[in-house]
Design goal:
Largest sheet: 10 strands, antiparallel
Oligomer: single chain
Distance between the termini: 10 Å
Number of strands: 38
Strand content: 25-35%
Radius of gyration: 30 Å
Number of helices: 14
């Protein structure tokens, strides 16, 4: 389809006498808003209960739910002199919390459930634990108490019977931390051998972990539990209203998860996982009524601890207590609960807070836009020491400021690569850019002496990533484009120069390309910690985009010579990419000039957006990316030579530039198809609504329960639909100039608004048969470029336009109509 470009600084409306399209009706986008109505959020239903729980609807505020549990009986003990040996065991360490810890097999028979055997062959089997009793013992079976960081799922139990080993029991698919294993028949023996052939894969690794093996079948009273569902991922501080309890301080343990699949006796992720915590939050319930708010800290010393803020959809409440929490909390008694709720701490995106909006004739696209907006809202929160990534991420310079965290659950740290997408989503929905600016300015304030800019505050601003200083440059340009804050650009201009003229030249090779490995960068990572080295197309294409953005910042701050110099360098790098990294046999850019031949989604997409690729190359490269299409998106590699699941892993982060490239290459149908496969999959699979950090083989959460199911870097559908489908984008800082270039495809109509420093810029277009009409209303004092399809008749205010002509207008309301 050919398009005409008209320059105008005002409103463009449908010509009089033309039947109004649906796009002219009153906006109805408010019905798609996802966020809760207030900060007091309640669960929507009780999903399940086990054990002695009466009136579980009391958890929803309908009366009182009562949990009861009798005291468990004493555990059987092995005869004196019992020992244990194993096929391997992990070396001692500090347990991640500064407390020395051992993992030898004797921990499985020492009577202390706080110690455990941990094998030393991660993900490799079999793992064998052999127990030799101090004297023969009569056994109807054994009970295996695992560690909450992962349980043996498949294992056999053998006994030495009449001088020979025989299998007395087999277990498959185990998920219980405490598993009673009855033998096929009772036996008197002095030796028991447990052989593990599969373990749970957890954030702490895939190891066999056994805290105790008790000689006998232990039948503890069932733990009373209830699982409540908040209906979608939420974030904040959980609260429980207790109506009272028995006088023995019964314990309540809370496990959180974004998905049911990874909700068990431990949370899918909690910050204390990094220090060897139990994976749950604990509270000792007093006898008198009280409202407990989950707060990071412990009741006394290291006992009865909780992590505070959580991102989750599902909450599992249990009447139970850790053995190490005795006597402050007991695993038995009675607890009465009159309600569960959440203090919602992220940005609360209600209809009244939207300063930008989107709506179209396609209901699915509308839902994905607002679901992504909500995903972004979950990460837009105040930076608090108690809530951020515990791996050295707290920074006094960010404390108390509004930031864009990468995820609701984890890592809860503002990474600049994530801001590259979540910042755009922020500008197009709610906020004036404060959250993004706080992050960008803080990272620049921590620039290294050689010009490298840290990716985030994690590890005290030292995490070595190769590509993220480039994202700081492009994100800074986006921030200035959308907000007009040239004062920020001026304040950090010297940081920009140092990054582009000091650090990146230090990792540039003789062919003029960035090469990871130079200047000590061999161990540097990138957005996915991918083990690639040398001349990587993604790094170099992103470099070109950063140089182009830096030129815009230079011109906006009165440094035209720098702008020219950087654009010249961008042109030279582009030429080198085409000379050395284009693979004519595949019709796509190589992932890297080093190692196995493969082609990446990231490099090819950015090469198109940077203008490195010709139209012919762009078409060919996009076809290559589509060749491996999956039901849940397009994979980020075309083979598995870099990582074992390269052809099965989908990142919305790297898919966003592909969507942009498709729209801008005239492939609207394929862009919409990709959106619907990827965002449609996430919307219809647990937890629903929010956008995941990554999708793995078969459409799974790519890092199991550790995966963030609400991640800001996955919200690119918002700028893709607003900037590309609707077509509204800034062309210079603060929308002083702008572009409206719709890419409608088969969509019947679309409309929306974008906030600018001078007011709302709205657009509305529709296509009915051979007629295309467009309405744009822009603030006075701005000017813009309008791109519409060519046709047999093109009218502006009823006057015909010359084919291919451009018309500058000022102020007021204007009409563009195209008859094709």
């Amino acid at each position: 389809m050919k398009w005409l470009r008209a320059v105008l600084p005002v409103t463009v409306l449908v010509a009089s006498g033309v039947v109004a399209a649906p796009a002219e009706a009153a906006p109805g986008w408010q019905k798609y808003v996802v966020a809760p109505a207030s900060r007091d959020v309640r669960p929507v239903k009780v999903l399940s209960t086990t054990g002695d729980v009466t009136n579980p609807n009391g958890l929803l505020g309908r009366g009182v739910a009562t949990f009861k549990r009798q005291a468990p009986p004493p555990k059987p003990v092995w005869p004196a002199g019992t020992s244990a040996a194993a096929s391997s065991f992990h070396a001692p360490n500090n347990g991640g919390n500064g407390q020395p810890r051992t993992y030898d097999p004797g921990n499985a028979v020492d009577g202390n459930p706080e110690t455990f055997w941990n094998d030393d062959t991660i993900g490799a089997y079999p793992d064998v634990l052999t127990i030799t009793a101090g004297a023969p013992v009569a056994l109807p079976g054994v009970t295996v108490l695992s560690n909450v960081d992962g349980v043996p799922q498949d294992f056999t139990v053998e006994v030495l019977d009449a001088g020979a080993w025989r299998v007395a029991a087999s277990v498959t698919g185990n998920t219980a931390v405490q598993r009673a294993v009855a033998f096929d028949r009772p036996v008197t023996t002095a030796q028991v051998r447990i052989t593990v052939t599969k373990d749970q894969n957890t954030p702490s690794g895939e190891f066999s972990r056994v805290a105790e093996v008790w000689p006998g079948v232990v039948a503890d009273p069932p733990v009373p539990t209830a699982v409540v569902d908040f209906g979608k991922v939420v974030a904040g501080y959980p609260k429980i209203a207790f109506a009272g309890a028995s006088a023995n301080r019964p314990g309540i343990r809370l496990a959180f998860s974004e998905t049911l699949q990874y909700l068990g006796e431990r949370s899918d992720f909690t910050r204390s996982d990094f220090s060897g915590g139990p994976g749950t939050d604990q509270f000792a319930v007093p006898a008198t009524p009280t409202v407990w708010r989950d707060t990071k800290g412990c009741a006394a010393g290291t006992q009865v601890c909780a992590d505070g803020l959580h991102g989750f959809r599902y909450l599992r409440i249990s009447l139970d207590a850790l053995a190490s929490d005795a006597p402050l909390a007991q695993p038995s008694g009675e607890v009465r609960i009159s309600g569960v709720s959440l203090d919602f701490t992220p940005f609360l995106g209600t209809p009244s807070t939207y300063r930008g909006w989107f709506e179209s004739s396609d209901d699915e696209l509308n839902r994905y836009w607002y679901a992504a907006s909500y995903t972004n809202e979950l990460g837009m929160d105040t930076f608090r020491e108690s809530d951020v990534d515990p791996r050295g991420a707290f920074s006094p310079s960010l404390d108390g400021k509004l930031v864009l965290h990468d995820g609701a659950k984890r890592d809860r740290d503002p990474y600049v690569g994530d801001v590259a997408v979540s910042g755009l989503t922020q500008y197009l929905t709610h906020q004036d850019g404060t959250a993004a600016r706080n992050v960008l300015a803080d990272l620049a304030d921590h620039q290294r002496a050689d010009g490298w800019i840290p990716p985030a505050s994690i590890n005290d601003y030292t995490l070595p990533l190769f590509d993220y200083p480039l994202w700081w440059v492009t994100s800074s340009w986006d921030y200035v484009l959308y907000t007009g804050d040239t004062a920020y650009a001026a304040s950090y201009y010297s940081h920009l120069v140092k990054t582009l003229d000091s650090w990146y030249p230090s990792v540039t090779d003789s062919r003029g390309l960035l090469a990871k490995g130079l200047n000590g960068t061999g161990g540097y990572g990138d957005y996915a910690f991918l083990p690639r080295t040398g001349e990587v197309t993604y790094y170099n294409a992103l470099y070109v985009r950063a140089l182009q953005g830096a030129a815009g910042l230079a011109r906006a701050t009165g440094h035209p010579a720098d702008a020219d110099r950087w654009l010249a360098r961008a042109s030279a790098v582009s030429a080198a990419v085409n000379q050395y990294l284009w693979d004519p046999a595949a019709g796509a850019y190589l992932d890297s000039a080093t190692g196995a031949v493969r082609h990446g989604q990231d490099g090819n997409s950015h090469a198109i957006l940077a203008g490195i690729a010709s139209p012919v190359q762009a078409t060919s490269a996009l076809a290559r990316l589509a060749a491996g299409a999956l039901p849940y998106g397009n994979p980020f590699m075309d083979n598995d030579t870099l990582v074992g699941d390269g052809t099965k892993r989908v990142y919305a982060f790297t898919s966003f530039p592909e969507l942009q490239a498709r729209f801008r290459s005239g492939q609207t149908a394929s862009a919409i198809d990709q959106i619907k496969r990827m965002y449609g999959w996430m919307a219809t699979h647990d937890p629903g609504i929010t956008a995941w950090e990554g999708i793995g083989e078969g459409g799974s959460h790519y890092e199991q329960g550790y995966t963030s199911a609400a991640h800001g870097w996955s919200t690119g559908v918002v700028p893709a639909l607003t900037n590309e489908l609707l077509g509204v984008s800034p062309a210079s800082p603060g929308f002083a100039t702008w572009t409206v270039a719709p890419h409608p495809g088969s969509v019947s109509w679309a409309r929306g608004a974008v906030p600018t420093p001078k007011g709302e810029l709205s657009a509305s277009w529709s296509q009915q048969g051979s007629v295309f009409s467009l309405t744009v209303s822009a603030p006075r004092g701005t000017s813009g470029s309008l791109v519409v399809p060519s046709g047999k008749l093109v009218l502006l205010d009823g006057r015909p336009l010359r084919a291919g002509g451009a018309l500058a207008v000022s102020g007021g309301t204007h009409t563009v109509l195209v008859v094709r």
